[in-house]
Design a protein that fits this description.
DNA-binding, alpha+beta, homodimer, three-stranded mixed β-sheet, globular
DNA sequence: CTCTGTGCAAACACTTTGCAGCTAA
DNA sequence: TTAGCTGCAAAGTGTTTGCACAGAG
C-alpha cells in the first residue's frame, strides 16, 4: 500500500504547498491511495476511523478537498454537482470547466466510435460512451490571469 | 424548437410506457429539448415557469426522472451523486454502473492518448481527459434477469 | 369513474461554515 | 509562540417522500 517513500513524497508535497503534516492528513491520504474504488468522503471516513477512532467526518472532507487542491487527489469528474439533464439524444461529448462547472457540448466524429475493450464489453453491458474532458474554459481563463 | 412531430413522438412514447400525457410533462420535455446546455432541475423549473407559472419544482424533478426512465432524457454522467475521490494518479478510465452506481476503473492504452480536437484545445485548457462508459455491471445484470 | 400525476410541505442526505481549543513547526 | 488544523454543531443546498386533491384516460 503506502510505502515509506510514498509518505515521504506526500510530506514533501505538503511542505511545498505550505501545509502542515498532521497525522489525520496522513491517515486520510493513506486510506485514499489504498482504495481501489472511488470512495466517497463517508466511505473513507469509516475506513480511517478504524485506526483513528475520533477523527471527524468534516476533517476527512476538508482534507480531501485540500488534497485535491494540491494535486495529491482528484475528484471524480462531475460528482458532487447537482443533477444535470440532457435532452440531446445524439452522440456527443462533454467538456466540463472545473472553475465554473459549466458543461460544454462538443462533437468530434472520431470519438463516436471508439472501440470498447473486450475486457469491459465481455463483462458489462455498455449503454453509453462519452469522452469526458475537464479543464478551464475561455471565460474562466480570462478571469484568472 | 419542438416541432409538432416531436410532440407526437413524445406522446406516443408516453402512451407506450403507460404514462399519461399531462401538460406539465409536455412543458418540461419541451424545455429540456430546447436547451443546449445541461440544465439542472432548478434551471429548467425557472424556464418552464414562464409558460406554466404554478408548476412546482417537485414536478419538474419527478418528470425528469420519469423521462430518464423511459429513455426520453438522460442524466449527465455521474451528476447528482455524492462526491467521489480518486487517489490514483495514473491515467485510467471509468466505467459506471447505472444501477448500483459503482465506478469501476479500467485501463485501455489506446484511450490514453486520444487526440483533443482543435476546436476545444484552441479555446479551452484541457487538464484531464477520460473515456467515460456507462452501463450495467455483471452483478446487476445477474440480479435483473 | 378510476387511477396516475400534481402541488405542497416535511423529511433527508450531503456539504459547507463558524468558532474555540489544540498542535505541528 | 503562533498560524494553521481539528472537532463539534449549526446552517445551507438539493433531493426525496407522503398525502390529499385534480385531471387524463
Amino acid at each position: 500500500m503506502a510505502s515509506s517513500s510514498d509518505s515521504d513524497k506526500f510530506e514533501a508535497r505538503c511542505h511545498k504547498a505550505g501545509l502542515k503534516v498532521t497525522p489525520q492528513r496522513i491517515a486520510v491520504y493513506n486510506a485514499l491511495i489504498g482504495s481501489k474504488e472511488h470512495p466517497s468522503a463517508d466511505t473513507l471516513w469509516r475506513k480511517v476511523r478504524k485506526t483513528f477512532p475520533n477523527i471527524s467526518l468534516d476533517t476527512v472532507n476538508r482534507t480531501l478537498l485540500t488534497l485535491a487542491e494540491i494535486g495529491a487527489a482528484f475528484i471524480v469528474e462531475g460528482s458532487g454537482d447537482v443533477k444535470r439533464f440532457d435532452g440531446c439524444l445524439e452522440n456527443h461529448q462533454h467538456f466540463r470547466c472545473v472553475k465554473c462547472k459549466k458543461i460544454i457540448d462538443f462533437h468530434h466524429k472520431p470519438f463516436d466510435n471508439i472501440p470498447v475493450p473486450k475486457s469491459i464489453s465481455g463483462k458489462y453491458t455498455v449503454l453509453k460512451k462519452t469522452v469526458y474532458l475537464e479543464g478551464i474554459c475561455d471565460l474562466c481563463r480570462k478571469r484568472c490571469t
